[in-house]
Write a structure and sequence with these properties.
5 helices, globular, 47% helix, two-stranded antiparallel sheet
Length: 109
């Protein structure tokens, strides 16, 4: 199956990029209620010079481990933050997660 092979290849590439430990660290930080800063690309002249706007972020620690942020949410959130905010402004996005709302908060910011 070509689709399955493509997914496996993408996961292997991700694992080789040494981002998996960083994703796990971010997931643990979200679950513990730690504050951290993400950086979002901007539109206009700032994007041409590579300016990224800081976005401080803190999740409340969940009452149970069932509401922790998943690795998939962190990866999607990082991918979404790489795009300029104008990409999402005014757009209607349905994020069908079942966690703490991490991706929804990122897209709303």
């Amino acid at each position: 199956n070509e689709v399955l092979q493509a997914r496996v290849l993408a996961l292997r590439k991700l694992a080789n990029a040494d981002v998996v430990p960083a994703v796990q660290d971010l997931v643990q930080a979200c679950c513990s209620g730690a504050e951290f800063t993400l950086f979002r690309s901007v539109a206009g002249p700032g994007r041409a010079i590579g300016y990224k706007k800081p976005f401080p972020f803190r999740m409340e620690p969940p009452a149970s481990s069932a509401l922790c942020v998943s690795e998939a949410a962190v990866v999607f959130g990082a991918t979404a933050c790489e795009l300029p905010a104008a990409t999402w402004r005014g757009a209607r996005v349905v994020e069908l997660g079942c966690g703490s709302g991490y991706v929804g908060v990122l897209l709303a910011a």
